[in-house]
Amino acid sequence: MKVKREKLMNFTADVMKKMGCDDEKARVVAEVLVEADMRGISSHGVARLKRYVNHIKERIIDPNGEPEIIFETPVTLAIDGNNGVGQHIAKFSMEKVIEKAKKYGIGMATVRNSNHYGIAGYYAEMAVKMGLVGISLTNTAPLVVHTFSREALLGTNPIAFAFPTSEKYPILIDMATSVAPRGKLEVYSRLNKKIPKGWAVDETGHTTTDPEKVLSNLKQRKGGGLLPLGGEGEEFSGHKGYGLVLLVELLTSGLSLGSFSYDTYKGKGKITHFFAALDPAIFGNPEKIKEHAMELINSLRSAKKADGKERIYVHGEKEYEKREKSLECGVEIDEPTYYELRKIAENLDIPW
Question: Name one Pfam family in it (predicted).
Answer without folding.
Answer: Ldh_2
